[in-house]
Amino acid sequence: MSTQNHENPASGMARFKRFWALVDVRNKEFLRDHAALAWNFLFPFLIVGGFGFAFSGNSQDFFKVAVHGSATQTGAAEFFETKYIQFIPDNDLGPMLEKLKRHQIDMVVSSGKYWINSTSPKGYLLERLLIGAQKPTAGTTSSVPNSYEKQTVEGREIRYVDWLIAGIIGMNMMFSALFGVGYVIVRYRKNGVLKRLKATPLAAFDFLAAQIVSRVFLIVGVSAIVYGGSHAVLHFQMLGSYWDLSVILLLGSLCLISLGLLVAAMVSSEEFAGGLLNMVSWPMMFLSGVWFSLEGMNPWIKKAANIFPLTHVIEASRKIMTEGATLGSLGFQIWILAILTVVFLTIGSLTFKWE
Amino acid sequence: MSTPSILEVRSLTKSFKSPAGKVDAVRGISFSIQKGTCFGLLGPNGAGKTTTIEMMEGIQKPSGGKILFHGEDLGADFKQRSGIQFQSTALPDYLRVGEVLNLFASFYKSSVNLEDLAKRCRLLELWKRDAHNLSGGQRQRLLLAIALVNDPEIVFLDEPTTGLDPGARREFWELVESVKAQGKTLLLTTHYMEEAYALCDEIAIMDQGKIIAQGEPNQLLKTHFDGVTIEVPSDDFKKATGKLPFPVFERPGSVEIPTRDVEAVIQFLMGAKISLDRIMIRPRTLEDLFLQLTRKGGSPA
Questions:
Q1: Do B91 and A9 touch (CB under 8 A)?
Q2: N or C: which end of chain B has fewer CB within 10 A?
Q3: For residues B179 and A337, what is the distance between their CA atoms, to the nearest angstrom?
């Protein structure tokens, strides 16, 4: 029988060929598992679509006005007694104006000044009320100039779905990384696929690297499709750069895949792996800010949530999408994700066993 | 022997810790395999065959003793030069036959022409078939092809035909014969004495971690047996009373009488008024030897 000689197995080319064959195989497995593949796309679409529909009606009955400093002493006392307006005292003007830009509040009143969002109908109505409350009283001749000077900000309203999309992409990434790598490796170990691979000259490092790269491709691909598809229907906001978002998603998927590898290295039973992965993923699901903001929660819970990589992935991508943040301002999240990746990957590959 | 030894084990031992205490799975076995031959490792379940073959493959680490390939310890190069078919092997999900062969070929520095290999293992027509949708025989042929993908010098086959129907088993034997004809060395473990007899040049019978008999199949039969076996249905044999003048082995539904003096046994049976209509006289087989040595076939009645 004729023999085909490849290059020396230690050479870069042969090693890459071996590595690429494994990546290709893992990709094919993913793409040919039609039920799981459909679920990977359908699940996030269903959630985003469902929540987009559920929150499409404006359920906010109250007008929200942030009151800064001694705003009420300028005049228009009647305005500050209007029913159905929630007045929120606050001393920090900057964040309030940010919230106004995002339509999270409808007006900011300070001493002698008021701000509204020029694209907000609620802001317009509140402005009419404020001006009405300042009208000169009957009998006076001269018109009293408005005591409050008008200022405007601009910015699109942040709907729940705009806020949610980063969480859903992050959550999908987490499940795909943990179960698609961690669980699959444990299954391969249990059913003997790893034992068969161990009997070949394949190095553990090459095998693990191929699993990571294949899953990163797939997660980034699926995230791009979910993002594109949701955007086409829901037109959510993207204020930052796609490059920055891609970097965060890439780093986030690396970190979560490494966590999956760590679980796979420690566990040999499929049932235990399933339990452990659920134990890791469900707290992240609820405490990493997928569904709701952790603002106002118990400070201990907020601190605890910081140990979850998903918290930082979602926070960073949400800041890019809804606030236009750049990588330069996301150093904290990037460092945490990078450190966690190195820690998970080091422990995972050092403790990895074929059998 | 004149032919050089390709693989040799010396005083090989393997112990495991278990909740019940230390288990000695392999207790100091030694043998050598000559180049170009098929060596059979036989034994009942739990005899230590798979532990032995896995130590020789480099999958398990021995507790003691030596394994020498061409007279030297198994080096990093051994995996490049050996091929393995495990007792049970799972393959990555959703892969086709051709893709499985390509994947395994990519792990080695040299590989055979995959089309030739597939043709020889009769897998060419199954090239695009999902590897999980193969019949038992087709699957074993694929696993053998994987073991041969790197053109190995020695091929380990661990119970390759367990669970196959007789037709598929014979087909597999033909394939193994063709591998042997290429000059490859084979180490085979099996439960089937017929298989060992058909394929092996030399066999070693293991029981409780030790080799209890070793040699060429025919030579072993000659050494241990000189005569025939007379089988009598159990129902008929019940009529025999008193002390029997020969050893008798009980089998399900029959008794077996190994003997060198057929006439004496026949006369005894006739004297005991046992019908000769249903008796069977046959040469003694490797299976008889195996059962006798490993004492799994019952004890003299």
A1: no
A2: N
A3: 53
Q: Report the candidate in A247, A148, A207, A211 with the shortest Cα–Cα distance to residue A353.
A: A207
Q: Do B90 and A6 touch (CB under 8 A)?
A: no
Give Cα separations from B258 to A224, B237, B296 (angstroms).
77, 15, 16
Q: At what angle do helices A204-234 and A331-350 cross, to 10 degrees?
A: 140
Report how far Cα B101 is from the mean position of its chain's Cα atoms. Answer: 26
3-class DSSP state of A60 = coil
What confidence score (pLDDT) does residue A10 get? 52
Distance in angstroms (rounded) separating the CA atoms of residues A51 and B75: 60
**What distance in Å separates the CA atoms of residue A230 and residue A161, rounded to the nearest whole number?**
10
- If we measure between CA atoms, which residue out of B6, B1, B16 comes closest to residue B154? B6
pLDDT at A141: 44
If you average pLDDT over residues A12-30, what whole number do you get? 83
Question: Which residues of A lie closer than 8 Å to B, measured between beta carbons?
Answer: 1-9, 14, 17-18, 21-22, 25-26, 28-29, 32-33, 188, 191-193, 195-202
Tell me the C-alpha distance between A333 and A254, whole Å. Answer: 14
Q: What is the mean pLDDT of residues B258-267?
A: 87
Task: Tell me, yes or no, if B109 comes closer than 8 A to chain A by beta carbon.
Answer: yes
Q: How many CB atoms lie within 10 A of CB A349?
A: 16
CA of A7 vs chain B CAs: smallest distance (Å): 6
Nearest to A338 by CA among A221, A204, A247, A245: A247
Q: How far is A21 from chain B (nearest CA, A)?
A: 6
Tell whether B112 lies on the interface with A, counting CB pairs under 8 A. yes
Q: ipTM of this predicted complex? A: 0.79
**B103 vs B111: CA distance, rounded Å:** 11
β-pair partners for B40: B188, B203
Tokens read off for B83: 């091929």
Output the CA angle A243-A246-A252, nearest 5 degrees: 145
Structure tokens at B127: 């090239």
Report the Cα A231 to chain-centroid distance in Å.
15
